[in-house]
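call fold(seq) -> tokens
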Amino acid sequence: MRRTAMALAASASAVSLAACGVIDGVGGSSSSATPKKGNDITVGLLLPEKENPRYDKFDYPIIKKQVASLTDNKGKVVYANADADAATQSKQLDQMVADKVDVLLVDAVDAKAIAPGVQKAKDAGIPVIAYDRLAQGPIDAYISFDNELVGQVQGRALMDALGAKAPSSKIVMMNGSPTDPNAAQFKAGALSELQGKVNIVKSYDTKDWKPENAKANMAEAIRAVGLSNIAAVYSANDGMAGAVIDALKEAGAGKVPPVTGQDAALDAVQRIVSGEQYMSVYKSYPQEANNAAEMAVAKVQGRSIEFDALTRDHVDSPTEKKIPSMLVPVVALTRENIKDTVIQDGIYTVKDICTGKYKAYCSAIGLH
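ret:
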């Protein structure tokens, strides 16, 4: 997988460009090419779960708004969320194929299980773009973040937190779901920074990314390793990070060791402000979602130049090679750059973050 440079400035500027329908100098105007289809198009959007609030709060509304913007308000988005059930998602995809949507954006619950549905869509002449997670089967394109880089950023953060104590430190790894190909990439990226440099005493692949499963795993690790012996925890995302921190506190931790996360969820940002969570990985959902919408519209309207400009990377899945892709950069989110990331991009306001007990912590770091 080709690496995308991690740069905050680039991320911020790309968000504004994407919001305007312009990427790499290519405009999103519906008059720029002779389309296969007009503006009256239907985009099917399949998202995987509800545990992470990003899908309903950011991805769906941003994609819906961008599709409308690109089609003079004539295009529409049909949305379904599988609530972490692969069989449900397969039925949702089958229904969208039966309803003859023009293009599908699919964020797979189970990348392998969705492959027959992707083939069904392909057979029906419906392009499929894998969104956020790399689905198997004959997909036409893929858009996500640089997932190995996410893991590397998390791993580097833990190494920075441990400093000179790293070689003698025992850490626990709380990885994501084994059915999510992104989880394997996060894990590989983290291991590239951690393996051989720290003592990984326990490592778990967390079923369905569920916080309750992560909490149970963490409780088991504490019993096996001893609370005082755990120097840090690699957690693949924020939902699990919160559960890990709860397990540590319930076991009697006075000071929580460094814990990583991903997604910049609001409660995680608050934990970072208060010092309970060490960091998260901020992934610009506006940038990913806007570009996904633009890719979908360009694909179904036959705008090959615009589509190619949006998919200059290439990745391989277990079933397909050289899939046209866009890999969006990521940023390590810490107490020091909250203003320059989630606040600057309009994800949260200071008022959202600095509520109740967090007001004092916000004041202490100049967040007001």
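The chain is about 45% helix and 20% strand.
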